[in-house]
Design a protein that fits this description.
There is one protein chain. This protein is an alpha+beta fold. It contains five helices and six strands, in the order E-E-H-H-E-E-E-H-H-H-E. Strands 1-2-4-3 form a four-stranded antiparallel β-sheet. A two-stranded antiparallel sheet has the order 5-6. A hairpin with a 5-residue loop joins strand 1 and strand 2.
Length: 187
């Protein structure tokens, strides 16, 4: 399942797995062309050396039975971090470092990618409301999360970011870094 798309996994004659990806609502469907273009452009970036990019295989058009454009992608084998959460606690520091590497590489892709402009208040900018929320959540969960990460270091970095005049720089981002969107390669 996906928040923005319904997805189905299938197998093509010959054994290759694919995923059909259909937008769940008109707002999501409006970004389909931009997403298709972006996937093709990402295949030619250094990002592919550290993370798998799904290959776009087909784009389908609206039909009387389904009103939006849709796509078929090559299946990337593995699991998401939410599904594997009970098995990865001991590996959290390595996974956190790996995620930071991917986020940094995404931000370094530069301009020229087909991404929407984000107005102040949208996800991605400005950062201060996000820092406030982070600190609020850290206060709510209390010291019990200290075995997962260095809480005081996170608070220190948050304070440093908050002190900056403009801690955001316009760049390409992944705005849904939730456990279901964090792939773990098949071992």
């Amino acid at each position: 399942p996906g928040t923005q798309h319904a997805m189905w996994r299938g197998r093509v004659d010959g054994g290759d797995d694919i995923v059909g990806r259909l937008p769940r609502r008109p707002g999501t469907a409006e970004g389909a062309d931009r997403e298709h273009q972006l996937l093709q452009q990402l295949e030619a970036t250094p990002l592919t050396s550290i993370v798998d990019i799904p290959q776009l295989l087909h784009v389908g058009g609206p039909h009387e039975l389904y009103p939006h454009r849709w796509s078929v992608l090559a299946w990337l084998d593995g699991r998401d971090a939410w599904t594997a959460r009970h098995e990865i606690d001991h590996d959290s520091p390595r996974l956190g470092a790996r995620l930071a590497e991917v986020v940094t590489a995404i931000a370094g892709l530069g301009h020229g990618l087909p991404v929407p402009y984000r107005a102040v208040g949208d996800e991605g900018i400005p950062i201060r409301p996000h820092i406030d929320l982070l600190l609020e959540q850290l206060d709510r969960v209390g010291p019990g999360v200290g075995h997962l990460f260095d809480v005081e270091r996170v608070r220190q970095l948050a304070a440093e970011a908050y002190a900056l005049d403009d801690p955001t720089t316009p760049c390409f981002i992944h705005d849904a870094l939730i456990p279901r969107n964090l792939p773990l390669t098949a071992a």
